[in-house]
């Protein structure tokens, strides 16, 4: 890979700005100062440094976010704050995108990456990747509702959902549940409850496949996936 491309990809500026770094003798390859922007380097075998700091080349990034309400699951929007706006500029540089969408008022686990293959496999209906949600429901959720969800319910547009596993945590006028589904239709959880005459008042995604929301992440916070988390996700492909 060309040296200027590597450094630009890692957030050290535009190609023009990288050339300025080279002129300033800020860049070394294997401890030798380099001025040639077109020099080809192998980041796996050679040590590239800027002002003495080792540049670890990364092609893909994987972030777990605890998405807050009021933020949309999009890469950009002229009017609304997006989940990408919550990232540090260096992380935005990698152009990650949300894997699937959470509604604007929905909280919880959101995976952001620039790995299109992983994203496609996690979202593909053929992969049957389970997603677990916690919800608070206006209305008494019953065992009959759980049976209906297990059989699949018909949404307002006539679509019949795949079977969902509904676990009732608290059955009352304000019920609490956990729901596992393998799809991601628009407003699906809310529409499934509307199909049985109930209303979702609070919704939070807890997990997606093997990836479970880190309880230590406050709303709006995010972190890189651990190697173990990434390995488990990739093994689901």
Would you spell out the secondary-structure blueprint of this structure?
Blueprint: H1 3-9, H2 15-23, E1 27-29, E2 32-33, E3 48-50, E4 53-54, E5 62-67, H3 89-92, E6 97-98, E7 107-113, H4 116-123, E8 131-138, H5 143-151, E9 165-170, E10 174-181, H6 188-195, E11 199-208, E12 211-212, E13 222-224, H7 227-235
Parallel strand pairs: 7-11
Antiparallel strand pairs: 1-2, 1-3, 3-4, 5-7, 5-13, 6-7, 8-10, 8-11, 9-10, 11-12
Protein name: Pseudouridine synthase
EC number: 5.4.99.-
Enzyme class: isomerase
At the fold tier of CATH, the topology name of the largest domain is: Alpha-Beta Plaits
Order of helices and strands: HHEEEEEHEEHEHEEHEEEH
Contiguous low-pLDDT stretches (5 residues minimum) are none
Question: What is the β-strand count?
Answer: 13
> Major beta sheet, specifics?
9 strands, mixed
Mean pLDDT: 94
Radius of gyration: 23 Å
Provide the CATH top-level class of the largest domain: Alpha Beta
- The number of domains is 3
Structural class: alpha+beta
Quote the distance from N terminus to C terminus. 28 Å
CATH superfamily of the largest domain: Pseudouridine synthase I, catalytic domain, N-terminal subdomain
Helix content: 10-25%
How many helices in DSSP terms?
Answer: 7
Q: What percent of residues are in strands? A: 25-35%
CATH architecture call of the largest domain: 2-Layer Sandwich
GO molecular function: RNA binding; rRNA pseudouridine synthase activity
Enzyme class: isomerase
Pfam families: PseudoU_synth_2, S4
Protein name: Pseudouridine synthase
């Amino acid at each position: 890979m060309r040296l200027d491309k590597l450094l630009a990809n890692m957030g050290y500026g535009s190609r023009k700005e990288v050339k300025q770094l080279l002129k300033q003798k800020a860049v070394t390859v294997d401890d030798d100062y380099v001025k040639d922007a077109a020099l080809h380097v192998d980041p796996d075998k050679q040590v590239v440094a800027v002002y003495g700091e080792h540049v670890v080349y990364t092609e893909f990034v994987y972030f777990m976010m605890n998405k807050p309400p009021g933020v949309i699951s999009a890469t950009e929007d002229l009017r609304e704050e997006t989940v990408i706006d919550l990232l540090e500029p260096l992380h935005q540089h990698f152009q990650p995108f949300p894997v699937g969408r959470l509604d604007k008022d929905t909280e919880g686990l959101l995976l952001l990456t620039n790995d299109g293959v992983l994203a496609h496999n996690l979202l593909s209906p053929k992969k049957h990747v389970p997603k677990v949600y916690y919800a608070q429901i206006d209305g008494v959720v019953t065992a009959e509702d759980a049976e209906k969800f297990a059989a699949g319910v018909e949404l307002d547009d006539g679509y019949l959902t795949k079977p969902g596993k509904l676990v009732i945590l608290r059955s009352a006028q304000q019920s609490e549940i956990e729901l596992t589904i393998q799809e991601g239709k628009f407003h699906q959880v809310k529409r499934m409850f509307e199909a049985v005459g109930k209303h979702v008042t609070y919704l939070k995604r807890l997990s997606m496949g093997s990836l479970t929301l880190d309880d230590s992440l406050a709303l709006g916070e995010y972190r890189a996936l651990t190697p173990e988390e990434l390995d488990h996700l990739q093994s689901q492909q």
